[in-house]
Design a protein that fits this description.
Layout (H helix, E strand, L loop, with lengths): L10 H17 L8 H21 L7 H27 L6 H6 L20 E6 L4 E7 L18 E8 L12 E5 L4 E4 L8 E9 L13 E4 L2
Antiparallel strand pairs: 1-2, 2-5, 3-4, 3-6, 6-7
Helix pairs in contact: 1-2, 2-3
Length: about 230
């Protein structure tokens, strides 16, 4: 999670913020080296949010169910948008401070004390979600120091995943073409219904706030897309 929350609290401000971030990131996808899969996953959640917000933004003509649908859509969208901004805007060396300011994102302070790379391995469990959705649950190993008090080890800001779908099982993270990073568990992966029954493999590791990664887990975690 970012030290200072850059996600606007009000829905109207959030809607403007997310539109600018996604639009600017899409325009600069190649120059900023953003994988298409990362943007695609974000755009699916953006579409769900836009539909829910369209019918719920009129306070004088909306139902409780519509408000609830809007709240759920934003929560799911934020869970993906926050780590996306951290990885592909805040920590991306290809993005200039002028780019960040144009998206109403405060540039990072580069004078912080150096943080060592995490030294432990995450524990990952893949669970089925709604429809063709998988949830990647991650936490510290049970025997890790402080595991009873926090999900991530001290010094870890996020969990990075490299994953692939279908084909032969990967021998290492280098065999996985898709990448995603999450600051909170679980992280949601959305797939088209036509991908149901295919297998996904993922490697993971802890990342600190400066983008340094720890050791990868030895064996990929696997599950079938529902």
């Amino acid at each position: 999670m970012l030290k200072h929350d850059i996600i606007p609290p009000q829905d109207i401000e959030f809607n403007i913020f997310q539109e600018v971030v996604v639009s600017t990131s899409t325009t600069n996808m190649l120059g900023w080296n953003i994988p298409a899969a990362n943007l695609s996953n974000l755009q699916v959640l953006q579409t769900a949010w836009a539909a829910a917000w369209l019918v719920a933004k009129d306070r004088g003509n909306r139902s409780k169910a519509q408000v609830m649908a809007k709240t759920v859509a934003r929560k799911q969208y934020e869970a993906a948008l926050r780590p996306f901004v951290q990885q592909w805007v805040q920590l991306n060396s290809a993005v200039t401070n002028a780019d960040r300011v144009s998206m109403n994102i405060k540039p990072r302070d580069k004078t912080r004390t150096k943080i060592p790379a995490p030294s432990t391995l995450p524990m990952v469990e893949i669970m089925p979600g709604n429809g063709s959705t998988l949830l990647l649950n991650f936490r510290q190993q049970p025997e890790a120091n402080g595991s009873s008090r926090r999900g991530k080890p001290e010094g870890a800001a996020s969990c990075e995943f490299y994953y692939k779908v279908d084909g032969d099982a990967p021998a290492s993270p280098a065999d996985c073409p898709m990448r995603i990073m999450a600051t909170r568990s679980p992280v949601m992966l959305n797939f088209d219904s036509g991908m149901s029954g295919r297998r996904i493999w993922t490697y993971s590791r802890w990342m600190n706030a400066t983008g340094q990664g720890g050791q990868w887990i030895i064996n990929a975690v696997s599950a079938v897309i529902p």
